[in-house]
Amino acid sequence: MKLIFKPFFAIAAVSLLLASCGGPTTKKSGNSGALSGNAAEKVYVAPGEHDSHYAFISGGFSGQLSVYGLPSGRLFRVIPVFSQDPEKGYGYSEETKPMLMTSHGFIPWGDSHHPDISQTNGSVDGRWVFINENNTPRIARISLETFETEEIIEIPNSAGNHSSSYVTENSEYVVAGTRFAVPFPQRDMPINEMKGNFSGALSFLKIDPEHGNMNIDFQIKMPGFNYDKAHPGRNASSDWFFFTTYNTEEAHTLMEVNSSQNDKDYIAAINWKKVSEYVANGGGEMQAANYAHNTWDNDAHQATTVMEKEVLVVNPMDIPGAFYFLPTAKSPHGCDVDPSGEYIVGSGKLAATMTIHSFSKMLKAIEDKAFDGDAYGIPIINFEAVSYGTLDQPGLGPLHTEFDSRGNAYTTFFISSEVVKWNIKDLKIIDRHSVYYSVGHLMIPGGNSRTPDDKYLVAMNKITKDRYLPTGPEVCQSAQLFDISGEKMELLLDFPTIGEPHYAAGIAAEKIKDKSAKLFNLEDNTHPYAAKSEAESKVVRKGNEVHIYMTMIRSHFAPDNIEGVKVGDKVFFHVTNLEQDYDVPHGISMIGANTSELLIMPGRTTTFTWEPKQVGVWPFYCTDFCSALHQEMQGYVRVSPANSNLPITYTLDDEVPGAEEEL
Ligand code: RUQ
Ligand code: CUA
Questions:
Q1: Would the pTM count as exceeding 0.85?
Q2: Of 481, 498, 515, at which residue does a domain stop?
Q3: What is the domain range of residue 213?
Q4: Chain segment 595-620, per-residue pLDDT in tens
């Protein structure tokens, strides 16, 4: 026991020491070394104990979503979403390959950004996590029963899918907004004719309340600005959605200069309820489109791709009273709404002040028609008429804000590397704490909902430099955990992340853990190539294709000797794990197969292919140490020359599997 304790405390103490020494930018930590013991206790989860919260942290350019425990910062799982993952066989097995299909073909990796948990009555409910792919625009839905990606839908007419994937208060919609203005629909045209000719697509995906399945209900064809981030309203403002915009200049080149000309850009306020009613009553226009909709079937254990051919497009001009622009300083990034729904916070990354709008003032201004002209027909509300106030000189480079349940906001500052806590009502700064370094997003479990669960805050940092042992030119990006239950924020822990942790979503563990799947019922398995007992295993030749219906159970495969395969064949291993116990996967790998080494869960059937190039007797084996006889879990396939006449035979213990039972 002691051996486990000692190094732990040593590490925690060292990291706090480093913090108080200051890094290369000579930051001061708010904590003294004296607190280190206290901080260590607060994050210590004893062996065998569970964390109190799950944190789902975006993998950024890894394309995945990782699952951590809080407060320990322990990594539990990487859920493959937009990228192939050899650990899970995702994107390699025949069954999962369709999940990565798009209108551009099979795309083996993506850029994941903003996870958001489904909500009921404005609270995170632990049913699904949604996450956006930024590069080839897509939204994914992940089940929090299986911790697997169940659905991915491509977003047409969109590019740089960044103001995504945020969920309304009762999971009516998940939103996908384009970052880049593009021709809508795409067409061949000169780039320098962009202004007035490109558009920004904001897509609203309806979520099936029971199963979570998504479909694009409508796409709003907005002016050709960049739409950076978004947030649904809460409570009073829950019928509305807010999107930050930049490049309202509609510049097409040297953007770092040309898209920063306007003193203010906008937050677009959209009454999505109105738009939803409008389309329910037959509004909008069906337009041709081409996008992939990939769905995983948990009983058939496989994904299918459907290419969708049209999308319903809505023109803002056709729905008066549903679209407004709120002037917001300057090139705002984060767009955040507090739990009451009254305050809309725009983080102007190039401005000295942060703009806070008032929802009730917005409604009044709309009633009074307090407008300063329009942009492409959408009324621009007068700044004074909608602004609640500004937070002056809070820090440099504000990016994102989350909230606690006590009326406080927490904003990250990328340039000055800090998290600032401020009171929303009186716009007073309460506390500031350095982070190491260059923080992007932050997350409080439920901190973007009506009901923040506000013990912890996780800051996600882009640059780590001296915080960990060096590992070559790249140091992992990192997360830092704070206790925010008191007046002052207390830094508790540093932990590394997978890829770039853009956003994260957190939730109390008890909302998820008891319904987590333990296995897949063999009885429910409808996979067309399933062998649900050893007696059902077989090997069938169809021309050049050989289909092996194989089973696995501790500690053998059935069949485990196969002959009659020839060079030039395409061999399909359809492998069913017969186990019906929690946490007993088996793996399989075949020498020379390039989609091999699949890990197969209890009750599941998974397929890989093998095209043997050389004659011989070739072994396959289990890749997951599953029992004391795991090393014995192996078999042979005999491969004969292409012109051989050897018939297919297959055995286990020198009998056809199941033959004994039949006698
Ligand atoms: S965005 S910080 Cu997708 Cu702010 Cu990354
Ligand atoms: Cu099955 Cu190792």
A1: yes
A2: 515
A3: 53-515
A4: 878 999 999 999 999 999 999 999 99
